[in-house]
Specification:
The complex is a heterodimer.
Chain A lengths: L2 E15 L9 H6 L4 E15 L3 E5 L6 H8 L7 E6 L3 E4 L12 H11 L4 H15 L1 H5 L10 H13 L5 E4 L8 H16 L3 E5 L3 H7 L2 E6 L2 E7 H13 L4 E3 L12 E10 L14 E9 L4 E11 L4 E6 L3 E3 L2 E9 L7 E11 L3 E14 L32
Parallel strand pairs in A: 3-7, 3-8, 5-6, 6-7
Antiparallel strand pairs in A: 1-2, 1-4, 8-9, 10-11, 11-12, 12-16, 13-14, 13-15, 13-17, 17-18
Helix pairs in contact in A: 3-4, 3-6, 4-6, 6-7
Chain B lengths: L1 H28 L8 H21 L10 H28 L1 H4 L7 H6 L2 H20 L11 H23 L4 H16 L15 H7 L2 H12 L8 H25 L3 H4 L1
Helix pairs in contact in B: 2-3, 2-6, 3-6, 3-7, 3-8, 3-10, 7-8, 7-10, 7-11, 9-11, 10-11
Classes of the chains: A alpha+beta, B mainly alpha.
Chain lengths: 406, 267
């Protein structure tokens, strides 16, 4: 049997308390009446097998069931039905620094955390110096200081250093690599590659398709709890990307009475078109984005302009851009905007726009007209952490040697 | 053989984790305190003085046991604190380590067992004070002392078993946490802690009572091992309590074993 991990039709059900207001009468009724709850399948009927030495990437949108699957595989929770068979020792980098006690020193915490993660005292002692060295020079000075005095960076580095020395047969990695500074990320990724080359099995969950493509030979694509695809990374990623492309970012209304808006303005047409280079399938940081908008103006002789907002998925407004005001008459009004390439960073964004009269009176706010995603793209890099920031400009930033003297 | 090796590995790993978690709790216990371990002694001593005050000045209860009342009260409190503290910390242990349970897998049962470590250390400190007290009141130490570890172990089993039941149920419904202080507060008075069972062991319901409240038999067993010549309850009663304690221990572990896999979903 070569299958180091075999999963056969596992499902996990959660009971969510009913969200319907009218069912929650009073405090006492909740005790005596069985509260109605809704079932929610976080993962449903998932089956796959991987062999020793496989590196499996797990991809999917938020809520696709990636974390639940990892929790089941690392035995933290049991599936509602189905069987998981795993051969060998599993270690998970789900959460770095789990089980650290703030009052204990760095030294004590290495032993504590190591034991929690399944290392024996002997193993920890053997690797103690290596762990400390991996965590960085700063830690050495603070080895006998309670970790509550550590900076958050030191905390994470120490946590990762311990996890990185677990030496399991199967390593489960969530997106912990996205923490720490660039230098530390490089170290972490190097460690992961080192583990990978030692014929270890890795399960790697990431939003970062570039990292998955580089590290994993197999990929599991989850969608709303189901297996969408499972197989060779190249094939799965291609299908995944082309499926994403099919989400047409276009809204068009032919009948004015069905269109969103009010009795002053109504949306007629909106389209977002990313420019795609070569064999590129979805918008990434290299793409420019063209936004075309059309609306019905229902009143004559109006001084109108459009004000467009782009929001990050966290709700923060990235920017607001407006057209110049124009005197417009009853009929269809059109506007278009191009967001240049290398402007927005990878991530999810929302577009809203409002039609404004006399520069100050909002006639209507069309909210969430588009919800789009920009993928990451990097060339010749060894670092796959999340690129920080909302914008990703490509400014001219020359560097040169000016002298050979020190 | 491979299976056996794996099993051995599991057990030794679990033991190591048990010791390191216990060590964590003990070393954290008195961090940033000036008096440190002395606090472990202050509590039982103050309780003893409070009851001495009550007996001398407020009530007219006479001590019919024939042993110095200080010794009766202090040994009772020593026993009670061991039970109550370990029971409380076992009951809360699962919720308190929710961040561990929801992120790492290890045998969950280790948490229950390591939760009693702090109470045990406190108990040992309190025991030292008992011997000073015994010396002062000229109470001898008999050979029965070798049975002391047995009583302590059974008491810990009882607290782990009872605690396991509360820990298991409180994960889903926090109502169970509200019952714990009630047990600890009123249990103190319905158990012969600041009195002895001489006062009521002839009552017709006493035999059943030693089964329902195994602490009755255990505390008298405990005093029997500490106080020379202390012989209040016959072995039958004590054995009933011991039997009851072990049953609760087993039932508690069974419930825990049955419930442990769903903890993460409710934490």
């Amino acid at each position: 049997m070569n299958n180091i991990v075999s999963v056969s039709s596992i499902s996990k059900k959660y009971q969510l308390p009913s969200t319907k207001k009218e069912e929650q009468h009073s405090y006492f009724q909740n005790i005596f009446n069985k509260r109605k709850s809704e079932e929610y399948w976080a993962v449903k009927d998932i089956s796959f097998t991987i062999n020793k030495g496989d590196k499996l990437g797990i991809i999917g949108n938020n809520g696709a069931g990636k974390s639940t699957l990892l929790k089941i595989l690392s035995k933290i929770t049991k599936p509602t039905s189905g069987l998981v068979h795993i051969q060998g020792k599993v270690a998970s980098l789900l959460e770095v620094g789990t089980g650290f006690h703030p009052e204990l020193s760095g030294r004590d915490n290495i032993y504590l955390n190591g034991a929690i993660l399944g290392m024996t005292k002997k193993q920890i002692t053997q690797q103690f110096d290596e762990i400390v060295e991996f965590a960085g020079d700063q830690i050495i000075k603070f080895l006998d200081t309670p970790v509550k005095r550590y900076s958050s960076g030191m905390y994470v580095r120490l946590g990762f250093a311990i996890s990185a020395h677990l030496d399991p047969d199967i390593l489960i990695v969530d997106e912990v690599l996205a923490v720490g500074d660039a230098d530390f990320q490089k170290k972490s990724l190097g460690k992961m590659k080192e583990v990978a080359s030692k014929d270890k099995t890795i399960l790697f969950v990431s939003h970062n398709l570039t990292a998955v493509a580089n590290l994993c030979n197999k990929t599991l694509h989850l969608e709303t709890g189901y297996v969408k695809q499972f197989g060779e990374t190249g094939k799965v990623l291609n299908n995944y990307l082309s499926a994403m492309q099919n989400n047409l970012l276009e809204q068009s209304f032919n009948q004015i009475n069905l269109a969103p808006g009010n009795d002053l303005v109504k949306l007629k047409y909106a389209k977002l078109t990313p420019s795609l280079i070569g064999n590129q399938l979805i918008a990434d940081v290299r793409s420019s984005l063209k936004i075309d908008l059309e609306f019905w103006n229902l009143l004559d002789n109006q001084n109108l302009n459009i004000s467009l907002h782009i929001y990050a998925s966290t709700g923060e407004c990235i920017f607001n851009v407006g057209t110049v005001p124009e005197i417009l008459n009853k009929g269809v009004v059109q506007a278009s905007l191009t967001i240049p390439s290398y402007f927005l960073n990878d991530g999810n964004y929302l577009v809203s726009f409002m039609v404004v009269k006399d520069k100050s009176i909002v006639l209507f706010n069309f909210e969430e007209v588009f919800n789009f995603e920009i993928a990451d793209y990097r060339e010749e890099t060894t670092w796959y952490g999340k690129w920080p920031g909302y914008v990703r400009p490509k400014f001219d930033f020359p560097i040169q040697q000016v002298s050979l003297k020190i | 053989m491979a299976f056996l090796n794996f099993f051995n590995y599991q057990v030794s790993n679990s033991l190591e984790l048990f010791f390191i978690l216990s060590k964590r709790d003990i070393s954290v216990r008195f961090k940033q305190t000036a008096l440190g371990m002395i606090w472990a002694i202050i509590r039982p001593i103050t309780t003893m003085f409070v009851f001495l005050f009550a007996y001398k000045n407020v009530t007219t209860i006479t001590n019919i046991s024939g042993y110095p009342i200080q010794i009766v009260i202090y040994s009772g409190i020593l026993f009670w604190n061991l039970f109550a503290n370990s029971f409380q910390s076992v009951s809360n242990s699962i919720l308190l380590s929710s961040n561990l349970i929801s992120k790492v897998y290890f045998p969950r049962i280790i948490i229950l067992f390591s939760a009693v470590s702090v109470s045990l250390i406190d108990f040992i400190f309190g025991l030292c004070v008992y011997f000073i007290l015994a010396f002062y009141f000229k109470i001898d130490v008999s050979f029965n002392l070798i049975l002391l570890p047995v009583v302590v172990l059974i008491t810990l089993f009882l607290s782990i078993g009872l605690g396991a039941i509360f820990a298991s149920f409180s994960v889903k419904k926090r109502d169970f946490l509200q019952i714990i202080p009630i047990i600890v507060q009123y249990g103190f008075f319905v158990t012969p802690i600041v009195y002895t069972s001489i006062e009521f062991y002839l009552k017709p319901w006493f035999k059943i009572y030693t089964f329902i409240n195994p602490l009755v038999g255990l505390v008298e067993f405990f005093r029997f091992t500490l106080i020379d010549g202390y012989y209040v309850l016959s072995p039958t009663y004590i054995l009933i309590s011991v039997f009851s304690s072990i049953s609760i221990f087993l039932v508690g572990l069974l419930i825990f074993q049955f419930k442990k896999d769903t903890f993460v979903d409710y934490l």
